[in-house]
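Title: Prediction job returns without error message
Component: structure pipeline
Severity: low
Priority: P3
Assignee: unassigned

Description:
Job completed but the reporter wants confirmation the result is attached to the right record. Sequence as submitted:
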Amino acid sequence: MEKGAYFNKFNPTIDRRELEEIREYLTTDQTIEEYQAELDGNRKIVVKIVLKKFSYQAAEQSFLGLSYFMRRSYFNVYTCEEYEECVRYRFCTGLENEDGIKIEVIIG
């Protein structure tokens, strides 16, 4: 299966509450210089983060903290793609009888 196939096929059920939760959480991460979190037209949350000092380890820690905060109890799946000056994570999480949420996180 292609690395992002599950993410692309996943049908999220999301509302503005999850978006606000993410924004509130990001304000607590002291490694973040700035961030943007928006809901796109496909019911996916897109989060763009600029770290005070970028490293792959710092990006991973920021993502894992966010994914732990947003995770649901039934399933959690993510992929990671490292580029020269940023990392892109795609994360799906949900409850047993619900599709859940889909988040794309770009950290630079």
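Comment from assignee: result matches the submitted record. The mean pLDDT is 88.
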